[in-house]
Amino acid sequence: MTGAATIGERARGAVAWWLDRWNDLLPARIAEWLSGAGVATVHIRFDGEVASLEYRKGRRAVVSAPVVDGDVETAFASLPAVTRRSPFIVDIPSGSVFVRSFSAPRAAARTLPKIAAFEIERNTPFELKDVLHGYVAAPTDGGRRLAVRQAIMRRDLANSLCARIGRTPDDVAALECAAGSPADRPIYLGGAVAARGSMSWRPFMALSIWAVLMTAIGLFAVHRRQLEAIATLDSRIARATAKVHARLKEVDAARRSAARDISAVRAKLDAPRVLDLLNEATRVIPNGAWLAEFRYGKASDGAHFVAFTGHADHATRLVTQVDGSKLYGDATLTDPITPDPVFKAERFTLRAAVRSAAPSTPSGG
Fold this sequence. Notes:
It is a single chain. By secondary structure, this protein is of the alpha+beta class. It is built from 9 helices and 14 strands. A hairpin with a 4-residue loop joins strand 6 and strand 7. It is elongated. The two termini are 84 Å apart.
C-alpha cells in the first residue's frame, strides 16, 4: 500500500508540474479559465442568525460584506466588481445537510445521476421529491471504482434557509455543502452550478488535447505501419485458424467413425449367435420338458434376455438348471406354474439374462 501511495503521489506531482508548464504557455485569462481561478461566485454564509456575503474567485474569498436585517441587495451592491451574472450560492450550515458515501464501478460514471437518486430512495428515509441532493465522485481502488460523496438536504429546510434572505432555492444558482476536508471538493445541491462552479475537468481536458496532438504528430507514421502489420498478421492468423478448425473437424469425424466401426466389430465378435443360444437351451432343458416358445430380446435397460415357454414334469427345477448354464443367468419364473390337463404336465414361463454381449441384429424363435 505504501508503494502504491508513493506512485500516486508522484503521478499527481507530475500532472501538477505539466499543468503549471502548460498554463505558463497560455495567456493569463485563458489560464485562469482552464484552472477555474477566474470563476466568480457570490456566497451567502450563515453564522447563527447573522448572514454575510462573500465574493470569491475559485475557492479564494476576495471580499465579504455583512447582511444587515436581511437586506441582501444592499450587501450585494457593496461588493466590488460583481455583476448580476455571477452565480449566487448559499452555503449550507453543517447541521442542515446529511452527507453519506458509497462506491460505484468506474464504468457507471455516465449513469451516476440515476444511481445517486436510486441510492436516496433505497438507503435513506427520504423521498426524492422531498429533498435537494448532489454528489462528487473521485476514482479509487486503482481507478477501477468511484468513491462518491453525496449530500442530501430536506427541501423544506432549503426553503427556510433561503427565505431568511428573501429568496427561494429556485432564485439561487445552487446550495453548497462545504468540503469535509481541504482535499475534498464542495458538493452543489440542485445541480445549477455543477458544470460552472467545478472547473477541475478543464485542466485535464487541456492536457489531454495537448497530449493527443503531440502523439498524433510524432507517432502517426509508426502507428500506421503498426496497424498495417497487425492487419496482415490478423489475416494470416484467421486463415491459419480456419484451416486448423477444418482439419480438426475432419480428424474428429474420422475418429468417431473409427470408434463406431470398432464397437460394431467388437460387438459382433463378442456376441453369441442365436444358434448358440438355441443349442444351449436344448442342453439345459432336461428330459421330460419341452419348449413351446423361445424368445430372444433386449430390455429397456439395454440388457439382453431369453424367455422360454413350455411344459415340464417338474418346472421348478428348471430355474437351477438354467442358472448353471454358461450363457444364461439370473433365471426366474415370470408367471405362476399351472397344470395343463391336456399335456398332463406343468406349464411354465421362464426368463433368463444372457451373460455375454448381444448380437447386433437379434432374432427370435
